[in-house]
Amino acid sequence: MTAEVDSRALDSGDAFAAVLAEPGPVGLRGLAIAAAIAAGAYTPGQGSIDEAVAACITWDGITEKIEKLVINDSNGHGAGTTIEYQDGYYGADGEKIATATGRAIVVAAEPQMWQFHSGIAEFADGTFAVTGFLNAAAVMKSMTQILHLRGTSGRYEGKVGYMSMTVSDTTQRPPHYAVSIAVR
Fold this sequence. Notes:
Elements: H1 7-10, H2 12-17, H3 28-38, H4 49-54, E1 57-72, E2 82-90, E3 96-108, E4 114-123, E5 126-135, H5 136-140, E6 145-154, E7 160-169, E8 176-183
Antiparallel strand pairs: 1-2, 1-8, 2-3, 3-4, 4-5, 5-6, 6-7, 7-8
């Protein structure tokens, strides 16, 4: 992977800026509820949802920034296109807290572009496998997307949960994303 970011990613902020933000209905508590259920730590209607949520590891206020991005498409940009990326996750204080390295595959381009993402997020105290499908049209409309997390090492080994991402700053080249994480 090279240190450059494909110009199509750099210029995507203009497209994001053309729409009103519609961040979606899933907040950090919703992610934590889903993580607790996925981990088998909570069954709806049984036990205390507040206790299940309190036992989750959660982060809010993370900014994801694209640091490297290569689109492999021979300028065809359709199904079968691959995207290799390295993103940084930054805390509210601006300090880098993790690096995410991964790959996306365009699985459908019409009528909307769907991408399957798989990668690893490396924090100082452990790693997550990050997987899931993203609807590129929804991302362009600043709508929240949800990815699955599976802890693979350190403090997170064996934990499961979810990560939400929404375009947060369209003025950046490439745009920045707001990320929230909940695992159990």
